[in-house]
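Q: Could you fold this chain for me?
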Amino acid sequence: MGFPSPGRRRETTQVLHDISLDIPEGRLTAIVGPSGSGKSTLLLCAAGLEQATSGSVKVLGTNILELNPRELAAFRSENIGFVFQEYNLVSSLSVEDNIALPARLAGHRIPRATVAEAMSRLGISKLARRRPDRLSGGERQRVAIARVVANQPRIVFADEPTGALDLKSGHVVLDWLQALPAQGTSVLMVTHDPHAAARADHVVVLGSGRVHRILPGGDAQAVGEAVLAAQAEDETVGSGS
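A: Sure. Below is the predicted structure, expressed as structure tokens.
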């Protein structure tokens, strides 16, 4: 994925500034930064859920800003999976039907065995007939991951996937996100948690809508310190000193 200087304005405020960033395929990349630094906006622009107002956003070699709405929807359906804090499950459908839904919306038939295997891998086979309102937060997020596993997208965008989970459930979700690149799926994850970010191969630190620093994964303390440094720099710039 490439982001050659995309910009995103909301009303009169520019959220992203002069970002030129290449996200390697086949890796788990985390985006961190202080509150308001543009983390989620960058993720949404990369996923085509928000449109950058300048520059280009290339995903799998395609500049998604050049696609019309129908082409963009088809591109997302064929290539992209989502794991968000809100789970985005359809309340009227069972767990197994939620997992199969993206393929069906794309006009594909997903084998029951594929859905069953995804549920088995996430330890939710016994929940197949339940609806989302009868699941815990951790179980709902496992369903969201199983949906990704079953539909085998080339890229997964995850926005605070552990933000609403307890520690144990959060570790399960991170384990599966960390395993996806070995299966050929790239992952771009926004998180506020340095320990979650440290599970990534690379960590992009944002500050005031710009890339402040890029770190290797593996060191939660270094990630936390980089976020604090970006915040301090933001405050210095904001105060004009």
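A (continued): The two ends are 36 Å apart (CA to CA).
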